[in-house]
Amino acid sequence: MNQKRVENVLRRLEARGLSQIMISDPYSIFYLTGRYIDPGERFFALYLSSDGNHRLFINNLFTVPEDLGVMKIRFSDSQDAAALFCGYVDHDAVLGVDKNLPARFLLRMMELNAAKDYVNASDCVDLVRSCKDEQERERMREASRLNDLAMGRFLDLVKPGVTEEEAALQMGPIYRSLGAEGYSFEPLVAFGRNAADGHHAPDGTPLREGDCVLFDVGCRKDGYCSDMTRTFFFRRASERSRQVYEIVRKANEAAEEAVRPGVRFCDIDKAARGVIERAGFGPNFTHRLGHSIGLEVHEPGDVSGSHSDPVQPGMTFSIEPGVYLEGEVGVRIEDLVLVTETGCEILNRFPKTLKMIG
Description:
Helices cover 31% and strands 23% of the residues. It contains ten helices and 20 strands. The protein is elongated. The mean pLDDT is 97.
């Protein structure tokens, strides 16, 4: 296990007045152990205790040949894994549990009186994960560098009559040719009025002259995710589309200029939202400004009006304002930023100036 990360989790656990935690999120377990397993419907948990008696509970189906620095407790499909887990818990203490712990396991543990009480303690891991160490920062930079390169190649997919689906299907091979491991999420490709749907899934819509072309795409490299959105126009753009584009670009840049340690997430959201509201398009910015990202493309913590915590060095999140005019056009511009000691590093370098393609 990564002892430094485990110690950071235990310190946060102690600050919450807790002495034990059950972690069931596979990405959090990977973060702490270096081993990723998708357990499907099976029980899978990392138990951390202030006394150092940590345990990894893992089904016999999964091969873990290496020494992970933690004792492994094996079980078969025919065993009651939750009951097995209960044999290692301090029954007289409160147990911190994962926010994603399936009810079928939690209810069984409660039935067996595994602990004095149960509380959601995911933040003890989430807050540690949110501040990337130097190795993680380098991996985030590399994933975004590959995403920038891929975006340049995606422009070659934009041809008269090509459909959204056809363009999206060609993106995976491009990512792999650049050395990425694959998508961090399925690509969002939207032409014309479809771009006014913030999460439009690619369909058979063909490209036509004057359409906006929205690519919301990301890849995974060395386990870490990238995410970027750019909006282009095919051959020409109406004056109204140009106006909307420039407003969104200014909102993106205003928010990025606001990012520095100590600034609240809600104030970063406000910096972008204010630009759009002053231009008269406030009701057309229909989502939060951004989301945290790392091992997962959407991690706990967001850039929204309801999140009043201050940002800290090492945090990475998206800045993605958008304006969506139903039946007409949609524009979103998204970068990832890494909070530094004095400001932020913008991880995406693909140009944001208005571009005609085709």
